[in-house]
Amino acid sequence: MKKLKKIQTDKRHGFKRMLSVCICFNLFASAFSQNLNVTLADQLTYGATALSNICGWKSPIDGKEYALVGAANGLSVVDITNPANVFQVTLVSGPNCTWREIKTLGNYAYVTTECGTIGLQIVDLTNLPATPLPVATWAPTISSTVLKTIHALHIDEAKGKIYLFGSNIANQGALIADIQTTPMAPIYLGKYDNRYIHDGYIRNDTMYACHIYEGDCEVVNVANPAAGVSIGDFATPNNFAHNAWLSADSKTCFTTDEVNDSYLAAFDVSALGNITELDRIQSNPGSNSVVHNTHIINVGGNDFAVTSWYKDGFTIVDAGRPDNLVQVGNYDTAPTASGSGMSNDWGVYPFFPSGTIVASDMANGLFVCSPTYVRASYLEGVVTDCITGNLLSGALVQIVNPPAYSVNSSSDITDGQGKYGVGVVTAGTYTVTVSKQAYISQTFTVSVTSGNVTALNVQLCSLTPPFNYTGNVFDNPTTNGVNGAFVHIQDSSLIWDTITDASGNFTIPNMLGGTYDILIGQWGYITKCFSGINLNSSSGPLSVGLDPGIYDDFSFDFGWTVSGLAANAWERSIPVGTYDAANGGATANPDADVQNDCSDEAFVTDNGGGAVSDHDVDPPGYTILTSPTFNPTAYTDAYVSYYRWFYDAKLNANQPNDTMNIYITNGSTTVLLERMIKSTVGNGTWLHKTFKISTFVTPSANMQIILSTSDAGPGGTIVEGGLDKFFVYDSAASAVNNLAAENGNVTVYPNPSNGRFTVYGLQSPVEFSVYNVMGEKVVELMSAKVKKLNSIPQQLNNSITLDLTSQPSGMYFYKITSGKEIISSGKLMIE
Which of 353, 313, 328, 354 lies closest to 37, judged by CA? Predict the structure, then answer.
């Protein structure tokens, strides 16, 4: 399956209780039952000597072609001029190591290894096939450290500069040297080492740096090698960016992620301020195979991605349409191996003028192959609703007959704009099916031709006709309609949004039957949500009563305002996690909101994802989040409650010295509720906090909460903030489900406690229920059984131990009933 990422629903609402939608594919278990458009010319085995990466070189003197093979004991130089009769010319010894990378510029090979102490090895290839070959090493002292080991390298051929990645120097970023002036004696120019770079690609002073542990690819202007400037950044599909390569026109960057079940992905980098993923593809879907290195070669004016996949050999993908990648060739160097893990095909090199491809299998040696580059035959289009014309995301498009060779290319799921793209290797006539939940499937016969796009736009009709869906939202105490209430209805692909009128009524025209999640809210009321609601033309109007309350779980935009000088501002969104590898892999930006509310949104600071330092709050300045005004003056004992997130950690040598302040104001007086610093409890977690308002300010009708997050500088550290489940409640009132403080022969002790309570004097049979301050039942017990909601207490008898340690600190209410009679009720406080 090729493009699961194309299921892109509106990100404004990510329901916690969404139905799970599973689309099952009855496809081939493996695409590698045979090799396609590649033939083996010869193979050279190395016995017990393991191989690593590979490169190639053509002599400008006699035209001979040589494979430069990384072997455990050095650089193996193999004459492949006659692909059917290859042989090793010489072995240039080096530190014994299972990691070896090679690149060339002119007549020189540059070799790196993670073992030994020699730094960069340089081999003069000019006199081949004469041997021995002249060899030099380069081990300068940089930042007071001698260069010894290097993980990978790349060469900017147009500029004559070499980039060394993952060395033992400083932060293991990129070391940059001139190799054009004196090829055997590089001239150090500078470094870009704000963080570890595993590998990268450079063209015309623009570097695509793969930050494997942070999972992103950073674009850097290195025209000044001593002062590189970051100009773009994007996360890769599996968040483990291993290598990158540019298309011939430099508009598309292709990346790989070196993890199980990974992808070759294509990104539009033509506008570095808006980098977007175009497509992704797997070599062998469902096998958990691991991609390693990709290269882009232009053949006949068209780009092809030649990519090594550890246990799958290498693939050839037609990349001429990077938003519709189609596999058109492959060769499996280890046909008896498959699945996850990092063994067998380490590298592939496709750039010989003859067209020969060489691949290095760690266990099986050198493979010399002859490829045939074939253009794909494309089928693309848009799927819409036949009545409304709405674009349909989540529709499955499959080429089913005859079965396509590459199942990873012949199936797609429409994106948020209803678009799909599939393709096959062989031109011809095919049967195509288009299906979607709650719609009538369609089958088409389509002819496609090599290198061309055949358009097929499809209209799917709902199993039930569209209908007008109406409803009313009212105030529970008065039954008066609520004006301006937000109504949000969605399934896995369709979203319906509307707002109630002055009477609380709403109408959604052209509604489609299905199973939906419904969310309704307004500032001044407790948000409500329902999951798995079946709606059709026979459904009656929706009638929902909202309970008054000052509450916001950020399912809707109720008018919080953002201000301040920092560019990395607060934003309401589904949190995108970032992880601080330098600080033990801690979560810096939250990767989820607080659970057990209606949606996945929260307020977080600059929710851009990527590397941990890419979208945190940076100096100078601060970012401020201010609530709408609220009025708790009718409450006898008003409390404010919220969950907040604060993360502060060092960056490079810069020690954390930053703050997040939370204030409360009554319109005339503003005071500090709490101040977070690095040592504050809960650094890097959602922490629940509750404050009695009158302890700080006199309640008024014009109250607000204010959060200010800043990086004190000067160098900058990692700083993130978050806010969720904001609630103001009256602790003196039986606010939750009108719990009356009726006395019974029940004692709860100790109260307050750390979450463990003993309840004495219970009647039988009885029901014991505990509610949080938002009216959500968290525990329900009966004398004959235990019903678990959010905790696991003991079975009810004359006395029980009630374990609420899994619940956040704060106020709770309990109610004990026998039938319809309330025996007792009261408050519980968890400290």
Answer: 328
Q: Which strands sit side by side in the sheet containing 216-221, from one edge to the other?
A: 199-203, 206-211, 216-221, 229-235
Tokens of 320: 């001429």
Hey, which residues does 20 pair with through a beta bridge? none
Residues 6+ apart with CB under 8 A from 692: 637, 638, 639, 731
- Exposure b/e, 592-627, CB count within 10 A at least 16 = b: bbbeebbbbbbbbbbbbbbbbbbbbbbbebbbbbbb
Question: Tokens standing for 533?
Answer: 């609601």
Specify the DSSP class assigned to residue 374.
Answer: -
With beta carbons less than 8 A apart as the criterion, state whether 97 and 54 touch: no
**Which runs of E-coded beta strand occur in 582-685?**
586-587, 602-605, 622-626, 638-649, 659-665, 670-676
Sequence-ordered list of residues with C-beta below 8 angstroms from that of 22, at least 6 positions apart, any chain: none
Strand partners, 431: 401, 445
- Burial class for 435, CB neighbours closer than 10 Å (0-12, 13-18, 19+): middle
Kindly report, residue by residue over 368-422, the tens digit of the pLDDT.
999 999 999 999 999 999 988 889 998 999 999 888 777 789 999 999 899 999 9
Phi and psi at 693, nearest 5°, equal -65, -45
How many Å apart are CA 256 and CA 449, to the nearest integer? Answer: 29
Do residues 407 and 26 touch, judged by C-beta distance below 8 A? no
What integer pLDDT is reported at residue 426 of this predicted model?
93
CB neighbours of 680 closer than 8 A, spacing ≥ 6?
646
- Spans of the chain below 50 pLDDT: 1-33, 734-744, 763, 783-797
SS3 567: coil
| Rounded Cα distance, 33 and 336, in Å | 10
pLDDT in tens, 307-325: 999 999 999 999 999 999 9
Picking from 368, 388, 283, 385, the residue whose alpha carbon sits closest to that of residue 325 is: 283
pLDDT at 38: 97
Tell me how many degrees the CA angle 382-384-385 measures, rounded to the nearest 5.
Answer: 170
Task: Pick left, alpha or beta for residue 299 (phi over 0 → left; psi -120 to 50 → alpha; otherwise beta).
Answer: beta
Cβ pair 395, 435 in contact under 8 A: yes
pLDDT at 775: 67
CA nearest to 808, candidates 768, 765, 772: 772
d(CA 464, CA 572): 36
Distance between CA atoms of residues 768 and 799, nearest Å: 12
Question: Contact 623/561 with Cβ under 8 angstroms?
Answer: no
> What span, in angstroms and rounded, lies between the C-alpha atoms of 324 and 267?
12
Separation of first and last alpha carbons in the chain: 50
Give the model's pLDDT for residue 16: 39
Backbone angles phi, psi at 44, to 5 degrees: -120, 120
* Cβ count near 384 (within 10 Å): 18
- DSSP string across 57-110: EE-TTT--EEEEEEETTEEEEEE-SSTTS-EEEEEEE----S-EEEEEETTEEE
Q: CB within 8 A of 535, min separation 6: which ones?
A: 469, 489, 511, 513, 514, 515, 516
Burial, 502: exposed, middle or buried (Cβ in 10 Å; 0-12, 13-18, 19+)?
A: exposed
**108: closest CA among 124, 92, 93, 119?**
124
Task: Judge contact between 146 and 136, C-beta under 8 A.
Answer: no
Question: Is the separation of the CB atoms in 817 and 823 below 8 Å?
Answer: yes
pLDDT given at position 767: 72
Of the candidates 177, 159, 293, 270, the one whose C-alpha atom is nearest the C-alpha of residue 219 is: 270
DSSP 808: P
How many residues does this entry show for the chain? Answer: 831
